[in-house]
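not sure who needs this but someone in the group chat was asking about UrcA family protein from Methylovirgula ligni so here u go. i didnt clean anything up, its just raw.
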Amino acid sequence: MKRRMSLLICALLSASGAQASSCSPQIDKVQRQVDARIDAIAAASPGDRESRAALLHHQPTPASIAAAEKRQRGYAGVKRALRELKHARVADHNGDVKACEAALAAARAAIAP
C-alpha cells in the first residue's frame, strides 16, 4: 500500500512539472534569430586586414578583439541580444515566465533591423 501511495505521489509530481509553462522553445527560436543576425553581419563585412602583429604570429589581445568587434556594424545589438538571452535562460530555469518573455522581447528588439 505504501508503495502504491509513493508511486501515485511521484506520478502527480511529475505531471505537475510537465504542465508548467516553459520559455525554452521561444529561447531556442530567438537564439536562431540571433545566430542568423551574426551570420548576416559577418557576410556583409568585408573583414579586416591582418595586422602586422598577426602576420608575426602574435596572438590578439582582448583590446584588439574589442576594437575589431566595434568596427562591425550591428555588433552592439547582438551583444545586447546575447545578454538578454542569458537573462531569459536564468528566468526560465527559475520558472519566471514573465521575466523570460520580457528578456526575449528585449533580445528581439536588440537585433531588429
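also Helices lie at 2-19, 24-44, 52-55, 62-71, 75-93, 97-111. if thats useful
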